Amino acid sequence: MPVFIDLDSQDHHLFRRASSNGNNALSANHAVLANCVNIGLINNMPDSALIATERQLFDLLSGAAGNLNVRLHLYTMEATPRTDWGRDYVRRFYSGIPNLLNSNLDGLIVTGAEPKAARLTEEPYWGSFQQVMDWAKENTLSSVCSCLAVHGAVLHFDQIERHPLPRKCIGIFTQTKITDHPLMVGVPSNLTIPHSRWNDVYEGSLVESGYRILTKSAKAGVDSFVKRHQKSLFVYFHGHPEYEAQTLLGEYRRDIGRFLRRESENYPAMPKNYFDGDAVKTLVAFEREALSDRQPDLFASFPVDRLARDLRNTWHSAAEQIYRNWILYLSSQKNRQSKLSAVDDLV
């Protein structure tokens, strides 16, 4: 079934994407919209990833929706640092936090962001983030946090601090399913998920605070976990199940560019378990050249097209199943509340 996009402006790229996929996102009548599962997306990603993140989550929700109708609402934290282009883009297509706080959503997805400050509490959007978390636990049936939003949420709710890693955790890591939680129905015992982060939270700290671990990796640590905060079941993805096949390549290339322009002093870590043997040899040779002759002009010779053609998305089916289970949970809880409300009206 389609994912309807809650936007007044019909020149947004998702409308074109929906139409090309046979998903007529513009033709829903009021009766259909009234029965949708309403999901808000707070896109806190940097400007360079705004559109890609919309596309990734739209495609994932579209594949996961099954026979359910989903309505997607876009929100932004106004305090998130952006370029002039980014501010104009979110102004045109996104609603602000005041609108979110007056909305009636079933579910909420809060993306991560590039860390800018030494402590999360020093990030410019921290106050807005806390406000969103407090609203979500009382007003949604379930909320999803990914990557940096995970670290912010567990700090806000349970004072669990993140811990910096010696090098960026980036790559495709095998995860083991360790529980039969409803969100894991139909998910294989072993699955792969992309990770891309500079910080970690310890499994022991999470378990002590009542979080239930769903999947974890011997190499990358905790992957997904859950905890109920008041009304809402919070689902935490330490990794990025929504990523496309080439997303990590784009991040790696971006970080190489920063190194060559001397915006970063360390050559970035190569994504693990992502490139084949020939690609690794090519990238090792490029790294040697970059370290011996660190010039911004070298960036133009990075073989992005050759590397991209051999990349495969090995995690999409598992990611789609997890999100399908999440949407089904939202729908069942929404129907349950509706029935309880109908009974109350008869009393």
CATH class category name of the largest domain:
Alpha Beta
Q: What distance separates the N and C termini?
A: 36 Å
Overall radius of gyration: 21 Å
Low-confidence stretches: 342-347
Strand content: 15-25%
Oligomeric state of the chains? single chain
Continuous helix count:
12
Corresponding CATH superfamily of the largest domain: Class I glutamine amidotransferase (GATase) domain
| Fraction of helical residues | 40-55%
- Could you say which overall geometry the principal axes of the C-alpha atoms support? globular
The class by helix and strand makeup works out as alpha/beta
Descriptors for this entry?
347 residues; alpha/beta; Rossmann fold; 2 domains; 10-stranded mixed sheet; 12 helices; globular; disordered C terminus
